[in-house]
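tool_call: predict_structure(chain=1)
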Amino acid sequence: MTSTIDRQPPPLTGAPVIAPGRSGSGRPPSKGLPIWLRTPPRNPRPQRPAPTTREIRWWVGVVWLLVSTLLLGFVAHVTVVGGLQHARAQYVLYQQLRTDLALATAPLGQLDVNSKLVANGTPIGLMTVARLGINEVVVQGTRPGDLTAGPGHRRDTVLPGQMGTSIVMGRQATYGGPFGGLSSVVPGDRIMFTTGQGTSEFTVFGIRREGDLQPEALKAGKGRLELVTADGIPLAPSGALHIDASLTSKVFTAPTPSFTKEVLDPSELAMASDESGWFVTLFWLTWLTIAVVALRWVRSRWGMWQTWIISLPVLLALGGATAGAAITNLPNLL
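tool_result:
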């Protein structure tokens, strides 16, 4: 006869059945096991509180983000943005030059058809170096701001193809680096230049660097073209590179000059910078600093990802504008 003590009630419906030797969490109990088999206790990792504006590491983060944005903007401007700006400017200048040539209003000297000084940035001709793939619209003026659109003609010299020496400067690396390949020029290369007077042909006869002798004085009734750009490593030049080419086609008559080299601004000479543009750089840098500080402050309240999604386009735009303004103030041949 079975006693009631030996009987066990059936398990309740829906109640979890715990297997012998296991705890309710599904893990084997650590008690009674060797030390090397016991499950270590889980201790929550303490989280470091977010820094505040009173802590140095908060401002270190601001400086780090500011410098990183500037460097990223500088690299992006040199590699991509500057080239796009140069291509756009060249397209617009080419359309303007075609119109001026068709209407016979292209500049022929220091004065335009209205007897006023040719404005800086005005297209004065098209230069082609077929072997190097150079096909650039040349503008009037050689200040750093003028050379952002393309090569520039030094205002105190005659136009290419006219009697005398014409000087054209161009950037080596920034804003598309239109003269970046001039170091590969060899004597005998041909340079074609189209202005309002027609097309002229030049032949390279000399390559000069800092400390080299000047070419022989130009004979009366002859023409010469001198191309100038930075020499050496891009963005870290060792001086200026000069390419001398003699005019081998018809010599055009040059109008009487209205001014000489003595009245040029120092920023128009080779490897010169324009200090007046630092105000624009400071303006963009101020707004970039404000944006970085605001991002750092908002991040502790919105969260990291929400802040970055909203702030990243703003930082990229301000960083690019600041870098572009700063590059414009660097030496004009970089």
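agent: The first strand starts at residue 123 and ends at 129. Proceeding to next step.
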